[in-house]
Fold this protein.
Amino acid sequence: MDKFEVTFFEPRSKARVQIEIAGDWITSKAEFRVAPHGTLIAHVYRTDQSVTWVSTENPKTGAKQEEQVTTIYRLDVAPNVDLAIISAMCMCCASIRSNVVDD
């Protein structure tokens, strides 16, 4: 079971917000809850391991290339919750977890 804590300041109210992310990030799902009261604000699910090809451009050469993507996530976010910050948290958690598994 993975557990991450994210703290940031809400721009309008300047309030400190703490989000706890817990679950089995690599194999199934995780939940995002506002600390300390535990209100559920988002779920992330890892979907099947089907192969998807993504077309990208090499920034140095400009050459087109295709990359194989095998991990696809589904994200459910509660109303009035910033999708951009939840998405950014997902990317950070996946990157951190991936680096731990690779080491």
User: Anything to note?
Assistant: The longest strand covers residues 2-9. The CA atoms of residues 31 and 43 lie 5 Å apart. The chain has one domain: 2-102.
